Amino acid sequence: MLESTTSEDPDSKYENSADVEQQYKLIEKAYDEFNNGNYEQCLETLDELEKCNGTNNKLEHNRAVAKFYKSGCKDHVTLLKSINENTGSIDRSSPISSKLSYSPIARFNMAVIYYHRHMYETAINTLTPLVDQVEDLEEHMAALVCTFMLRLLLVTNQLRKAAAFLEMLQSPEHKSSLYLNRDTLAGEEASACETATANHENFQRAYKFLAIQTCVMNRKPIVVAEDGSAEFSSLKAHQYYIMKDFQMAAKQLKKVNEIGATGELSDMLNTCIANNMGVIHLRVRHYAIAAKFFQDAITFDKRIAANMRNVSLYQMSTARTCEILYNLGIAMLHLRRPKEAYNCFFVPLKSYHSNPRLWFRISEACIMAHEMKMLEEDSKPMITSVVDTGGRKTFFLKPTNNVVYSLDKDALESGPNLHFAVLALRNALTLTTYYKNAFEMTEDDELPTEREKENWRNVKDNNFCNPSRPISKNSLNNMLCAIYAAYSYVSLRLGDYVSALKMAQELLKAEKLSDAHRLLAHMYAGEALLMLDKLEDARPHFEPTFVTNLNAFDFETKDWRVKSLDAAQNVVRYNLAVVMALQGDFELCRNILSSCTHPIVAAKVLSLKTYLDIRMGKCA
């Protein structure tokens, strides 16, 4: 965006009216040449203007913008550097009226650059001073600022804040050309455009689209009128998805595909359709189909990001590799392909390193890879050979590989492993605990408080897991329980029994603990106490009484080895038998083993019976 190059210094004087008239003609000429795409002539006109009136910050800013467009909107680095040099170092808290601060247009242009570079928080911080003094801006500039801020709030998943900001813009007290009543929002004439490139002719339509999108994302009842554009059709599909009408959402996306697009937008639209279809299939547990859609989305996205250094700034913002790989990683986890999931999650980790759910997903991939190795080992015979020496048989058992907790370079090998799982779970636990405290302090319910109603800036969104939607308190508690369980398990496998016991005890203290997690907490706590040679303390965790009260539905999980209540009871009884054997009560141990009939513990029961026979002298 260009800005007026007339001097605002009251001390500046012109020699005569002819000079003033000539300068205004040059300004109008440069403006027309810029709008017509004649950037070379525009730069020449700006040079003539500099000879007449001298240089100033606005002239340098306009020259930088013209050069940026001349480069095909690719050299945004030079533009950003030029804006910084001409306006001084940024002070986001300084008022826009200060001579040392950015002019509104220069600051707005900076925010646009940051937005397209996926630096959303920086863009919001840059734009906030303009929003704070929006009443002092020109009507056209105020409309652009408000529209763009609404877009930034939506893209950062600050949905409640976006709704409050929209309500402020719609209030009668707010004098703005952006005022729209609800009937206008649902009107058939509504259409969408790209907010970041909106000018004085189309920002009203962009704002209308974003206003409807805000209502949809906040689950407010509103009619999304289709106007034949891909944007509105996609928004309609999103509304169906939020309403859990997945079949209609898929049909609506097919309409978007039929609308199609040409030129630079085709790959972006195909990426969007493929990713959203994958999300729908992921939601209905068609994981293989979802993975195929996500892989197609990555293929389309690669065409956009193939040469990121040589694409326009606006194309740069359409690349969504991180988000798509995040979705693909989840699909791969459900398909029990941990190595692929691990590789997928590592890419978005660089951008969303403060997302506790992402760290937990990586740990799940590491744990799953370890479990698959264990299953492969368990499939091998326990007795490798038998040697008959002098009428006595000697049994040779398969070796056991115990993983020891270590932070050596050898331990931190590439690929999914338990050592990296510990680091990931530590990060996930730290972040989740911090966010839980912040959640409880900022929001007790979904309704806005009086303080939030007074100012939209006071509204808090629990968007701790970007790029996902804001998380609910119940989901946060469930994630914390899952982290405790996984942390305890990994610590047991690595021989860190103190940490395993601590995590299991924390899990038992959790609110609204599911029966499956309660079982795991008792199992892990009991095993940790066994390994710490605290048999008396371990025994209460293996009492079969608590298992009879478990909900069988919690064990109906496709990928979990304990898939029924009977299997869970057998696991608990087997562990209790182990405690009895270690305490020397072999008869009671044998009686308990006689009730362990489930295939999940069959091999372990046979091994323990053999051990009892040896200890009781019953082996020939």
Automatic annotation (TrEMBL):
One Gene Ontology CC term in the entry: CCR4-NOT complex
Domain of life: Eukaryota
GO molecular function, one term: identical protein binding
Cellular localization per UniProt: Cytoplasm; Nucleus
Chief site of localization: cytoplasm
Gene3D superfamilies: Tetratricopeptide repeat domain
InterPro entries to which the protein is assigned, alphabetical: CNOT10, TPR-4, TPR-like_helical_dom_sf
Keywords assigned: Cytoplasm, Nucleus, RNA-mediated gene silencing, Transcription, Transcription regulation, Translation regulation
Keyword Transmembrane helix: no
Family: Belongs to the CNOT10 family.
Function of the molecule: Component of the CCR4-NOT complex which is one of the major cellular mRNA deadenylases and is linked to various cellular processes including bulk mRNA degradation, miRNA-mediated repression, translational repression during translational initiation and general transcription regulation.
Protein name, UniProt field: CCR4-NOT transcription complex subunit 10
Organism: Bactrocera latifrons
